[in-house]
Amino acid sequence: MSITHNHQLTNTIKSGEILLEAHHVKKIYEAEGKQPRGVRPPTVLEDINIQIASGEFVALLGPSGSGKSTLLRILAGLLRPTEGEVLLKGVPQHGPNPHVAIVFQTFALFPWLTVLQNVELGLQAQELTRTQRLKRALAAIDTIGLDGFEDAYPKELSGGMRQRVGFARALVVEPELLFMDEPFSALDVLTAANLRKELLNLWHARKIPTKAIVMVTHNIDEAVSMADRILVLGADPGHVRVELQGLPLEKRDAKYDEHTRMVDVIYRIMTSPHTDIEELLPKELLQPQTGKLAPAKPVRPYQSLPHAGIGDITGLIELVHANGGRADLYQLGRDLQLEADDLLPLVEATDLLDLADPQEGDLILTETGKRFAEADVLTEKQIFRQQASERVTMLRQILHDLEEAPDHIVPEERYIDQLKQHFSDDEAWTQLETIIDWGRYAEVFSYVEDRGIFRLEDPETLAEE
Prior knowledge:
By secondary structure, the chain is α+β, with helices and mostly antiparallel strands. The chain has helices spanning 68-75, 115-120, 130-143, 159-171, 189-204, 220-226, 257-270, 277-280, 310-322, 329-336, 340-352, 367-374, 377-391, 393-404, 413-419, 425-441, 459-464, and strands at residues 3-4, 18-28, 43-53, 57-61, 83-88, 91-92, 100-103, 177-181, 212-216, 229-234, 239-245, 326-328, 356-359, 362-365, 409-411, 445-448, 453-456. It is 39% helix and 18% strand.
């Protein structure tokens, strides 16, 4: 494995001509309607510089909020960057790129069309005769293992078979670049594993027409098993933190130590967003560089809460405690059958509340975390209340406002308006929902949903404290 800074990618690509490039791409969230004066819209992506070369399989990894899917759509021409440009073989692109085909997570099939008709649909924009379209569609169906299902409708197919139709529809146009947006995440474990294996076999045998593949995934195992190059994105805003050269083909299976070490490294990077990359990688992975590595993400000026429920936080702490107070994050993910996007918010929450500390790919309980794991329900809530009140800025602000209000009632609008100054509308509400969930559990306040108000739990009791 090797590592490079994203501005030095031209030094690492040796597999073929540069097909696609992103130069200083920036994307700012564009809210509907007029932006309030003084409010700066959130930045989704910041200064993205990447290159995709012929002959390579590139995986985009990153936590929620890192803009992986947004970046993929910008590269495909489905979204316009706010700043920067995308080039195909050196030519700036404007609008959808006809040389790119995309496979989505949700299959996106037309239920009233047969398999053959769904696949042929991708050829409607091309100047082909009916016979030519039929010939190419049948060839794509045969390549992807759907021969015999040409006349079946999507409702007759399993999830794995429907996704095969999605692959056939993408490949039938013979794209130079195949983009995949979490293509296996909606499938069960065995089906996903089988489809991944078959796709890789076709790719390595050069039985599909595409020259390069770019895949967005939240599955670290998947990225390590499939990709020649892995770009790990950071969040708030999305940026390329580091590039990792993929493992040799013969070492990508999960049974090899190299695979486990690579997964551990990526977990370490993703759970340490504020730490310099040099401190996170083993010495053998650091190689002489001509440029600087991507710096650690600066601390966000406004606190962002992870999307983690109380029950899941509690369960994770108890599981780590049962393992002796320390657990490997990679193994935790496998034991709990959680993808990185599901596990990392829980890890971030335990770190934020000072219940556990992520270190070198492990999660280690703090002394407070150990007391939390051993406590009865009432003591557990008291500990959570203390940690949340000390470490969650808005929760502390709400409590202060409630104590100061004459009737000990505050409307939610005060806080949602404040959150919208730093997050998109959807994310602002999600942040507020997390605050409500944590505050209710901690018995800091009650929340009356139909009135949209916060109310102090027990003003007299609080005054005595």
